[in-house]
Amino acid sequence: KQWYQRRVRALYVNEEATPTDELTWGDNSSNIAAVYLADSHMVLVSVYRAPGARISPVLHRLQLFIEKHSMDNFVPDIHIMGDLNCPGIDWATCFSTDSQESELLEFAEKFFLSQVVKDPTRGQNTLDIILTNREEYFASVEVEDMQISDHASVHCTL
User: Fold this and answer.
1) Nearest to 38 by CA among 24, 20, 23
2) pLDDT at 127
3) What is the pLDDT of residue 126?
4) d(Cα 70, Cα 54) in Å, to the nearest integer?
5) DSSP 3-state helix, strand, coil percentages of the chain (rounded to 5)?
6) Given pLDDT bands bounded at 50, 70 and 90, which one contains residue 72?
7) How far apart are CA 53 and CA 75, in angstroms?
8) How many Cβ atoms are within 10 Å of 149's Cβ, its own excluded?
9) Which residues make Cβ contacts (< 8 Å) with residue 6, sequence separation at least 6?
């Protein structure tokens, strides 16, 4: 069992998986905990971006980490989970008028990522998201208001 964490972000990897690389990064408004699992050619990421914070430093570090583990232009399986605070994105149409959110949409398009959380996680907004290039891996994704936070919990089964 291994925990990778950066400030309030944590990522749990069970004993059956052996990460061969990790990324931990954070500043005053955002943080990332990520691992690469070479045996399954997979990148797992837990990320947080504060409301109003610039998204480009987060996306830049994620892009470098993903590209580092791409082999002959073969991108690894990517699963990015967290609160990126992008309330203006319409995930059904992949559209936003906000420049920060548009950067996230461009990043998702570049790596063929789909957003699999379909229900709101805070009020009417879907702030807590899962971006993946292997949507078929997710058997279920459920949002549950546990009433212990201002955000609902996202539960998924891979």
Assistant:
1) 20
2) 75
3) 76
4) 26
5) 20, 40, 40
6) confident
7) 28
8) 11
9) 24, 25, 26, 31, 32, 33
